[in-house]
Design brief:
This protein is an alpha+beta fold. It contains 16 helices and 27 strands. The chain starts with a strand and ends in an 11-residue tail after the last helix. The chain binds flavin-adenine dinucleotide. Flavin-adenine dinucleotide binds next to helix 1, strand 15, strand 21 and helix 15.
Length: about 500
């Protein structure tokens, strides 16, 4: 038994192994990657997806009725250059020619930054940032001016990336910690001259990729470095092309609208309970790969897993995220001198991004008005969508009064991931865990129970990234392929498909 990869080369199932029948729960990138890999290895696959759309937390919204209308990424929007698996899949899926640079926070001098002196253009912000930073230092602190300048900008990025409660927990000692980390680095090459000297954080991080590795917050700083780096990409035409291209290559059925509500690991397979129309039906499967987030799984009926596994399913920390995108009559920010990137707006809004206009300008332009995570996302996510949108538009008019112009706002769409029943959060977060504790949690999350296997960003070493979904999907496919059933299980197991049922 063999399948063909995209280059046409055959991939044989592990020698001596019977081809397996696997039910994959979830058609996000982990589930689709695993399905594709399992078929490549000679197994047969069916996918059960609760939603009517594929891609899970990769969700591209197209404004206007035209397929070429302006796009808003309501889920994943950028790919770090260092995420080699994701970049490789983009290549394999024939999407390399769609890769474009993603411009991030602070990458445009004309974008805005909230400071103690109010909203300032990035190019004008240094004096206010340095003044506030110095005021937060212990009396008698004596650091070089350039070190303080760099630390003040790093602190501003931490402030822009970290959500509310986490931000507050960092305050104690963070500024001194940043200064200590910078002691051994010559930051002068990263100073940008101008009316006000500032630090080019993009270049600083590119030249100091291991910055803060020794810090107690290394997991968190890794993400700050990534989010404010210039080595980020996006896909022209939308990130959901990754999911669509993957799904096209999966030969087995992908059943949409099939919400799994129970998973029970049994000695001879896995019992799945699933909503089918108004009824709940049970199916026995030989092998199941569960890719739903643990934040969803813990709300389902599940049994047959060990105590430690049950504990990690219940305890894994998830953070919400809320995105609010606006269809504007025109890219008004360009008249204001902003050519792209993002503003750190603070307040309720937190971050605002200015996507490039790649569609017909007569169809308008998309603005990612607000991107929040953690408690900030809950604040917005828990109010009804119309009030959420009104609050954000109102606040954002302080720096973009054009939003109040009649006819400027054509449409608003928002996605509160913490409230979405198919995600119950944006992603697993291990920012406060040291590397050993984070790895321990990952291993337990990914551990299989007999023929019930697990994948998803939460089971990977890159949680909260597409890279993690792909890493875990490939790893689970290999684990299932290598799994050797005990002899008595071979006799007992069987793919008991109910006649006439398509699942
Ligand atoms: C707002 C936001 C911004 C992000 N930004 C980035 C970014 O810029 N770059 C990046 O790389 N990553 C980013 N991520 C993370 C990235 O999107 C995820 O890590 C990745 O998509 C997760 O894939 P997954 O397959 O593990 O999970 P999911 O995509 O959640 O897939 C799980 C699937 O299971 C389905 N499902 C759920 N419950 C059930 C059920 N009961 N029965 C059947 N099916 C079910 C879901 O509908 C979904 O399709 C972001 C995520 C969010 C939310």
């Amino acid at each position: 038994m063999y399948a063909h990869d995209l280059s046409g080369a055959p991939h044989w199932a592990t020698p001596g192994q019977r081809a397996k029948r696997i039910t994959v729960v979830g058609a996000g990138l982990a589930g689709l990657t695993a399905a594709y890999e399992l078929e490549r290895l000679g197994h047969s696959v069916q996918v059960l997806e609760a939603r009517l759309t594929l891609g899970g937390r990769v969700r591209t919204h197209v404004f206007s009725d035209s397929p070429n209308g302006p796009l808003a990424e309501l889920g994943a929007m950028r790919i770090p250059a260092s995420h080699h698996r994701t970049m490789r899949w983009i290549d394999v899926l024939g999407l390399s020619d769609r890769v474009r640079q993603f411009r991030t926070l602070f990458s445009d001098d004309a974008s805005y930054l909230e400071s103690p002196a109010g909203h300032l253009r990035v190019r004008d912000a240094s004096p206010a940032l340095v003044k506030a930073f110095r005021e937060g230092l212990p009396p008698g602190s004596d650091y070089r001016a350039e070190t303080v300048l760099c630390a003040a900008w790093l602190s501003a990025s931490v402030n822009a990336v970290a959500p509310g409660s986490f931000r507050q927990s960092l305050q104690t000692g963070l500024n001194v910690e940043l200064l200590e980390l910078l002691e051994d680095i010559d930051v002068r090459p990263f100073i940008v001259d101008g009316a006000n000297e500032r630090i080019d954080l993009n270049r600083f991080f590119a030249n100091n990729p291991g910055f803060a590795r020794t810090s107690r917050l290394s997991n968190f700083f890794d993400d700050v470095v990534i989010e404010t780096s210039s080595a980020l990409f996006r896909l022209d035409g939308g990130m959901d092309q990754i999911a669509r291209r993957l799904a096209e290559r999966v030969r087995g059925p992908i059943h949409r609208g099939r919400r799994v509500v129970g998973l029970h690991a049994q000695p001879d397979g896995v019992l799945i309970e699933m909503r089918h129309g108004l009824a709940t039906v049970s199916r026995h499967c030989d092998y199941v790969l569960c890719t739903v987030p643990f934040s969803v799984l813990r709300g389902m009926r599940f049994s047959g897993m060990g105590d430690d596994k049950t504990a990690v399913i219940h305890d894994m920390q998830y953070w919400p995220a809320t995105k609010i995108a606006v269809h504007c009559q025109e890219a008004f920010w360009e008249r204001d001198g902003i050519s792209g990137g993002g503003s750190f707006t603070g307040g309720l809004v937190r971050q605002t991004y200015y996507p490039p206009v790649e569609s017909d300008p007569r169809l308008g332009a998309a603005l990612l008005a607000s991107y929040t995570i953690g408690p900030d996302a809950d604040t917005l996510g828990r109010v009804p969508p119309d009030r959420r949108a009104a609050a954000v538009l109102d606040e954002l008019q302080a720096i973009h009064p054009e939003l109040g112009r009649p006819g400027m706002v054509l449409d608003v769409v928002s996605q509160a991931w913490g409230e979405d029943p198919t995600s119950m959060g944006a992603a697993a977060v291990r920012w406060s865990k040291d590397p050993a504790a984070a790895e321990e949690e990952r291993i337990l999350a990914a551990r299989s129970d007999r023929t019930l296997f697990f994948a998803g960003e939460h089971c990977s070493s890159h949680p909260a990234w597409i890279e993690g979904a792909i890493e875990s999907g490939v790893a689970a496919a290999q684990e299932i392929d290598a799994y050797v059933p005990a002899p008595r299980r071979v006799l007992a197991a069987g793919y008991r498909k109910v006649p006439g049922d398509s699942v």
